[in-house]
Amino acid sequence: MVGSISNDWEETYGKILAPYLADPQNLFVISSDFCHWGARFRYTYYEESHGPIYKWIEVLDKMGMDLIETLKPESFAEYLRKYNNTICGRHPIGVLLQVPD
Fold first, then answer.
1. pLDDT tens digits along 64-92
2. Does residue 6 fall inside a structural domain?
3. Residue 13 falls inside a structural domain
4. C-alpha–C-alpha distance, residues 25 and 39, integer Å
5. What's this model's pTM, rounded to 2 decimal places?
6. Which residues of 5-15 are buried (b: 16+ CB within 10 A; e: fewer)?
7. Which among 13, 25, 41, 70 is least surrounded, fewest beta carbons within 10 Å?
8. Secondary structure of the chain: what % helix, strand, coil (to 5)?
9. Does residue 24 belong to any structural domain of this protein?
10. What is the Cα–Cα distance from 30 to 11, expressed in whole angstroms?
11. What range defines the domain where residue 61 resides?
12. How many domains does the chain have?
């Protein structure tokens, strides 16, 4: 389990876990929900140009998913800094993205 850690620790754990991720005998499950929008989550960022709030959340989450697919940790980290999206699994995802090729 990965809790709230810094980007430096994501990189450290990515390097530690790399040989285990490379072993086809091992299975890692990285699971996350994405945007939690609303006052109770202290997240109400909204770009009205995208239409209703649910459409904005869809765009916001899709941006994050697309960046994860690039496997570039710095791009995902920049997205999180820019939008502050409330992705609960941001740190486990960050660890996975830090695994060297």
1. 999 999 999 999 999 999 999 999 999 99
2. no
3. no
4. 44
5. 0.87
6. bebebbbebbe
7. 25
8. 55, 0, 40
9. no
10. 16
11. 32-101
12. 1
